[in-house]
């Protein structure tokens, strides 16, 4: 949902020191020796860090704030405010959310083939943990249209085969979540144009 010129993605979160979003992730995978621990990959694993990193970087080219928006779409108080304002004729409603945490667990997979052997699937565990400050959200016309300034600390942990590494950072919430046209909080059918 963040459509600003500077997207904060899962990949860029791992690389906090430069513009190449895959460089630090590649260094982490290579130095962890995690690919050498993958069964049936053996010594060839140390040669696989670059292609595995490219595959992960493509998978991680997703806005880091998307899980926040997904959870807010399921929040009952926000859905109620959206229903109340759906007609778009009244005042906006303001919803205050206390400090809260949002976690999201994913299992990206990368298939590696060496010397025409059967592919080896490497399954990673990716955990996203967001800690958000108390926020005031604006709902109008059935859409989430604004949010108060706030901060969000983010821990992203990537693990595989008993090894994991974590990157933490704090962001202004507006860096992660941009609401240019508003976010639908109700099913698409609720926004269908009613016959006159």
Report on this model:
By secondary structure, the protein is of the alpha+beta class. The protein contains 6 helices and 10 strands. The strands form 3 sheets. The chain has a 4-stranded antiparallel beta sheet with strand order 1-6-7-10. The protein has a 4-stranded antiparallel beta sheet with strand order 2-5-8-9. It has a two-stranded antiparallel sheet with strand order 3-4. A hairpin with a 2-residue loop joins strand 8 and strand 9. The protein is elongated, with a radius of gyration of 21 Å. It starts with 9 loop residues before the first helix and ends in a 12-residue tail after the last strand.
Helices, strands, pairings?
Blueprint: H1 10-14, H2 23-32, H3 49-59, H4 66-73, H5 76-85, E1 93-97, E2 100-106, E3 109-112, E4 120-123, E5 125-132, E6 135-140, E7 143-147, E8 151-160, E9 163-172, H6 173-176, E10 183-184
Antiparallel strand pairs: 1-6, 2-5, 3-4, 5-8, 6-7, 7-10, 8-9
Helix pairs in contact: 2-3
């Amino acid at each position: 949902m963040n459509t600003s010129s500077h997207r904060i993605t899962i990949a860029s979160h791992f690389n906090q020191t430069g513009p190449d979003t895959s460089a630090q992730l590649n260094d982490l995978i290579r130095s962890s020796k995690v690919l050498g621990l993958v069964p049936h990959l053996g010594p060839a694993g140390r040669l696989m860090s670059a292609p595995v990193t490219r595959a992960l970087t493509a998978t991680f080219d997703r806005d880091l704030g998307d899980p926040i928006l997904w959870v807010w779409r399921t929040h009952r108080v926000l859905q109620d405010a959206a229903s109340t304002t759906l007609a778009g004729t009244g005042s906006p409603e303001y919803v205050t959310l206390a400090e809260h945490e949002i976690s999201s667990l994913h299992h990206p997979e990368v298939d590696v083939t060496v010397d025409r052997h059967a592919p080896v699937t490497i399954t990673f565990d990716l955990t996203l943990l967001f800690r958000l400050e108390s926020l005031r959200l604006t709902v109008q016309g059935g859409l989430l249209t604004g949010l108060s300034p706030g901060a969000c600390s983010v821990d992203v942990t990537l693990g595989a085969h008993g090894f994991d590494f974590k990157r933490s950072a704090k962001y202004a919430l507006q860096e992660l979540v941009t609401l240019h046209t508003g976010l639908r909080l109700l099913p698409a059918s609720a926004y269908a144009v009613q016959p006159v």
